[in-house]
């Protein structure tokens, strides 16, 4: 049976990290809410979330269904998929290290989201522009460089390969770092360009992942949803600098 991915059909969001892993592995999967009858797909997803018979209901998309197994939260989904898609080390220490990197990526993704919604997710960006400008300034000057420098250190200290975060083969963490850099480049092009100039290994990993055959084909396809003003990474020129 194919994997079933449940996520919003109009944004990359947190679901994109899972899509990249499935695409890199050439896995058989169905993006439920993006099926030809997308309205029915959305109904399926919302109905699944509201199923009162589920013992372990997901809080929110993304979540993955693999037969009777349902896993929510991006990092947990990738922890589950990693060994099954050959995108994680075989040893336990390596798998946990990969998971730790993924959780760190999740941290900066949350911070990136909060640059345009620093007060409340239920408010429009226009309702919190002053707060967003202040939050974004700190994110640009402090947080982006700090996170990318840490990833640069991880790459430098990987004695097996300077082009992978863990070991000598691609893992889901590499794919997720690619997506993070892609998103930051879209949202904060000026600030990210400056940070990448000081983190050449991170920049090289981003370029290398984009050239991987299956990823390149995916990025060029209509399966890749373009960045937009509804997702986590949003480009407001006034927040970049």
In short:
With 241 residues, the chain is of the alpha+beta class. The chain has helices at 15-25, 38-49, 74-84, 92-116, 129-157, 172-187, 189-197, 200-211, 213-219; strands at 3-6, 29-31, 63-66, 69-72. It starts with a strand and ends in a 22-residue tail after the last helix.
Describe this structure in words.
The chain has 241 residues and is α+β, with helices and mostly antiparallel strands. Helix content is 55%, strand content 6%. It has 9 helices and 4 strands, in the order βαβαββααααααα. The chain has helices spanning 15-25, 38-49, 74-84, 92-116, 129-157, 172-187, 189-197, 200-211, 213-219; strands spanning 3-6, 29-31, 63-66, 69-72. It has a 4-stranded mixed sheet, covered by helices on one side. Helix 1 packs across helix 9 and helix 6 (172-187) packs across helix 8. The chain starts with a strand and ends in a 22-residue tail after the last helix.
Order of helices and strands: EHEHEEHHHHHHH
The CATH topology assignment of the largest domain is Glutathione S-transferase Yfyf (Class Pi), Chain A, domain 2
Fraction of residues in H or I helices: 40-55%
Q: What count of structural domains?
A: 2
β-strand number: 4
Strand content: 5-15%
